[in-house]
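Review form for a predicted model. The reviewer records the input and the model, then writes brief findings.
Reviewer: anonymous (R2)
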Amino acid sequence: MKKLFPYLVYLKDVKMAFILAILAGIFYGASTGLGIPVLIRYLYPKIFSNEAISVMTLTLICTLPVIVSAFRAGGNFLNSYYLSYCGQYILQQLRIKVFAKIQNLPIAFFHKRQPGDLISRVSNDTTILQQTIINASQEILKQPITLLGAVSYIVYMCFQQSDVVFLIIFILAIPLCIVPIRYIGIKMRNKARAMQEQTSELTHRLAQNLSAVKEIRSFCLEEYELSRYEAVCHVLRERFLKVVKYTSILSPSIEVIASFGVAMAFWYSYKSKIEPDVFISIVGALYLSYEPIKKLGRLNSEMQQGLASLERLENILEEPITIHDPAVPHPVGKLEGNIQFKNVSFAYEMAPVLRDVTVHLTAKKTYALVGPSGAGKTTFAHLIPRFYDLAEGNGSITIDGINIKDMRLKDLRQNIALVSQDPVLFNDTIYNNILVGKPSASHEELMTAAKRAFAHHFILELENGYDTLVGENGSMLSGGQKQRIALARAFLKDAPILILDEATSALDANSEQLIQQALEELFKGKTVIIIAHRFSTIKHADRIFVFKSGEIIEEGTHDLLCEGKGLYEELYAKQS
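Model under review:
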């Protein structure tokens, strides 16, 4: 339960609702745990006695149960509703907090996590936590107060009758009821955590399968994928049944223990010749004591599942943000685009990717990065917008003489446009997908950007034009169309630094020719970094850097490098 305490700070925003919930819970608990035994002890005997009672008294006796029930019903509803209201508000803030954290985590974090696992944590675990909050809202206040009311009545009756044996019976039974609650609670959290981890694996398998539909059919992997999915489902079923086993056994265990207490009460009452009305009221109070314990025990099991989900969410919340804004950022407007790498080394985990790279990129020039896969080209480019950060002592990167670590991330990245090999489109209209490049852009600016990217014509041919929904990750568009939408974003953003990561690889020859014409215009006045394997896109670069094993081993123009008979000439010859 201590894990929930840090989130109670959100209750200050809904404190009135929380206060009402507490008051309603007190009304319910008092009217149940204390009110019902009092009715049994003092009112019902008058109904069945031989004494004559007035109409007024009879009316009062008949009205009191209705009043008690009204308090119970009203307290029950208001307590459940307002606690649910408070709980859902806290859950909403937690969801937003987790999502906000994901937006700020470094890209390296996502290399270590399966997308399905993250989806499961944000979706499935918050759903489990939501159900836990709903169930807790039903019982968390009402049952303890009901228990307190019933215990108060038992204590009162025992001392009134000068007989504490019933109290001793009750006191002895309570610890016995708590034993299975604690034992099963410990087991439940471990089992629930294992079940939720397996649910994450199931989500990952499904997400992976849906992202590789063509490959699965191309390689006839349908049966193989099905067998893998069945295996994960089988393990999930086994883990779910273990959770159900511990959940289901708790209430029966408490009932059996409670029945011993009632049996002892029967035995003692017979031996002591206790009056029926006293006996019935005390046994009723005993029942009203054990019932809250049983419900709280069941709630404890559900809480363990919720806490297991909370732990998984906190794994995200506690992940350190290693790339952040400086304490005192250097003010930055629109940059010129002079980029300086000085003695830069970088490694993923322990694997070196760049080794002591020193290079200067003059503003408003075009630079191409070539080399075999894994040579460090993409890492070199991704270090500029700080997708990854250099470790202390591993060199520095400056733009216009300002260390990029001294800039606010937003200021830095607003000066950089990126078009990747596989552009991501959001499940929205084409218009809104282009608008990502500059949310404040006018309609005319957006249209101009689309025309410059040679996207305007094909967009107008679509049934709904710019209002066409592109589908999940642009599934309704071809690869070339998606790439042109991404280029339109870059045109619209008009940033002084442009990074093209294999940006024309998805285009056919005709489209690529048109895009090359558009890119020539886009490149004007910008520092351009092109990562490409197709030499047709980089031959006219002002300077070409040749990477191998994390080092720049050659640099120069296309013609100069071809004369050098080095790695560049070798790679170029293979494509010629």
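Findings: The beta strands are 339-348, 351-361, 366-370, 396-399, 402-403, 416-419, 497-501, 527-531, 543-548, 551-556.
Further findings: The first helix runs from residue 15 to 48.
Recommendation: see findings above.
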